[in-house]
Amino acid sequence: MERIQKVIANSGYTSRRKAEELLIKGKVKVNGIVVKELGTLVDSSDTIEVEGNILKKDLKVYILLNKPRGVVTTTSDDKMRKTVLDLIDAKERIYPIGRLDYDTTGVLILTNDGNLTNGLIHPSNNVDKVYIAKIKGIIKSDDIKKLSKGVIIDGKKTSKAFAKIKKIDKKKNISIVELTIHEGRNHQVKKMFEVCGYEVLKLKREKFAFLDVKSLKPGEYRHLSIKEVKKLYSLINKS
Asked: For the chain, does the N or the C end have fewer beta carbons within 10 angstroms?
């Protein structure tokens, strides 16, 4: 379910603010009935009419991208940098589920399915996001325990995670650590290591839920199968 003004704005008909004005003026109908209340929830089965025009229902699209370095995870960029949408040929208006930093690589899902997006990013659903971090320094076992229990970043403690050492190179003074989290806070993984005194030199999202990008080169993408989409929905519809 999504707020009706957001659905109208996402359809490209008008801005969200204008959509709210049209709602208040009684210019919007849902299944033939005038709706004036802001925040009214609708789903893909509802027919929405704005100023006498029926909104077209977008075909749902689900794309798995192996995000390369040097690409921003936004739909547009005021600095004119390449975005993840520049890598994908899609007629539908899609957007990324969560974000990966400019220099972070790996699994990224893009879709126009708001219900799936909200479910996958909500921390209460405990959807695994697995990262491989190359950090400066030899990580201590105590810090692995700290990361697993959760650390305080931006004044708030992170949820319990799973951390394990993959490799240690004493000559190069680096450690490779696998970290599984269930949240998606801004720069979360980098900040978690920073709290423990480590600089992240390289970061890759290895998995999102059960999905990985081992079959895709950086910058390549593929459409998810119906079976994969259903499996993702099963993760957020547990109750």
From this structure: C
- The whole domain housing 157 covers 128-208
The pLDDT of residue 239 is 47
Same domain flag for 82 and 109: yes
Task: Verify whether residue 43 is a known catalytic residue.
Answer: no
* Each residue's pLDDT tens digit, 132-168: 999 999 999 999 999 999 999 999 999 999 999 999 9
183 and 132 co-located in one domain: yes
> Pairing relation of β-strands 95-96 and 48-50?
unpaired
Question: Residue 223 forms beta bridges with which residues?
Answer: 63
- Do 188 and 150 lie in one domain? The reply is yes
| Same domain, residue pair 118 and 67 | yes
Which residue is associated with the tokens 């005194």?
197
Beta partners for residue 157, in sequence order: 152
Domain containing residue 195: CATH number: 3.30.70.1560
Angle at 128 between CA 125 and CA 132, to 5 degrees: 155
Catalytic residue among 101, 103, 128, 212: 101
Mean of the pLDDT values across residues 211-235? 96
Q: Could you give the number of structural domains in the chain?
A: 3
Contacts by residues 71-80 (CB-CB < 8 Å, ≥ 24 positions apart): 71/102, 71/219, 72/102, 73/98, 73/99, 73/100, 73/101, 73/108, 74/99
pLDDT digits (tens, 9 = 90+) for 20-75: 999 999 999 999 999 999 999 998 788 999 999 998 777 889 999 999 999 999 88
pTM (predicted TM-score) = 0.79
**CA torsion angle for 77, 81, 85, 87 (degrees, to 10)?**
180
| Angstrom distance (rounded) from CA 130 to CA 128 | 6
